[in-house]
What does this fold into?
Amino acid sequence: PYKGMLADEVLQKRKKFLGPSLFYYYQKPLNIVEGKMQYLYDEAGKRYLDAFAGIVTVSCGHCHPDVVNAVVEQTNLLQHTTTIYLHHAIVEFAEALASKMPGNLKVVYFVNSGTEANELAMLMARLYSGNLGMIALRNAYHGGSAGTIGLTALHTWKYPIPQGEINHVMNPDPYRGVFGSDAASYAREVQDHISYGSSGNVAGFIAETFQGVGGAVELAPGYLKLVYDIVRKAGGVCIADEVQSGFGRTGSHYWGFETQGVIPDIVTMAKGIGNGLPLGAVVTTPEIASVMSQKIQFNTFGGNPVCSAGGLAVLNVLDMEKRQSHCADVGSHLIGRLRTLQQKHDIIGDVRGRGLMLGVELVTDRKEKTPAKAETTVLFEKLKDLGVLVGKGGLHGNVFRIKPPMCFTKDDADFVVDALDYAISGL
Ligand code: PMP
It folds into this structure.
């Protein structure tokens, strides 16, 4: 049994010693003290089924033994030197990661987070294109640093500082967007912005193919293909933010952008790449990477031996355990059951996503699509009491995000749906 600090004291110290901008889930926040694969345990030993994976970060499973072993072994041998010396772990990891990329995406930069990855991608786009203007989607989340905050397009995360040379085009959201699933109309708006709202040239375009923080929104089919063409004609590079959607989670493909049949010029990743280790990466073409050589580009912890050994273990585990096809299999079962549940409960306005990257949007009125904010909060607490942890997303906080560790089983999926059914029935 756990003998450490209890929730009340942790919370008290958090309030005293950590910044006031932190937020937590649940009226009485959980004190999670242990994790094993798809399960989390609180201080009292209560087990929770984790359907959110620490914001889509735990890919293989909490404390997956292969990843833990790789980290422990490397930690005992050598923790850190930086890239001023040679080390095999970073090149092995880079080679393995590059082998997962399509096209000529072969040059890897390692960083420590998704924010850092997107900062670097934006820098490259600007240097390579010689332009400044970036285009991002409304409802996007790309980071919280002074630069990436400009890319992020949810007002709740944007501090009022200069947001840089960044414009946000309409979100091709099939459920809430004014053009529904009509990708061509949304793409025309991008061209419209470039023609009328810019010099005619842009630095680049960035998008998550499956918006995470924005509430598991899958972009209208065909959108990226049309927009990549438009952006490239305007001199810009196309960046795919795979921080949440990569590594086979969407089931049908290894990378989210592949679901739209495109090859980006730069891909950014983090979260699932490390199964919990602070790790991020940018992968691009040799041609784009070459613009960085005009100065020194250095990152003290980027690609350190411990994270590289852990990251390589993650890639191997996902392959060996065939997690991509598993996500397809369990995901289609889960989405099928959620759609059936939608027929039973009017409050479920939309069920969307692919693989284990799903969203359930709750509304009080299906026609008006009025966000069921208060009801979502009640259900969220109830699910937790029933032992199920899901995520919350969307600007109105009315979307349940179901993005569990990729070892999640069909039984786990059934448990989530049954718990949701039970909770909604009791509203
Ligand atoms: N991009 C996406 C799509 C994300 O979801 C996040 C984090 N929620 C980030 C970038 C930023 O990653 P980090 O918090 O590791 O900086």
The mean pLDDT is 98. The radius of gyration is 21 Å.
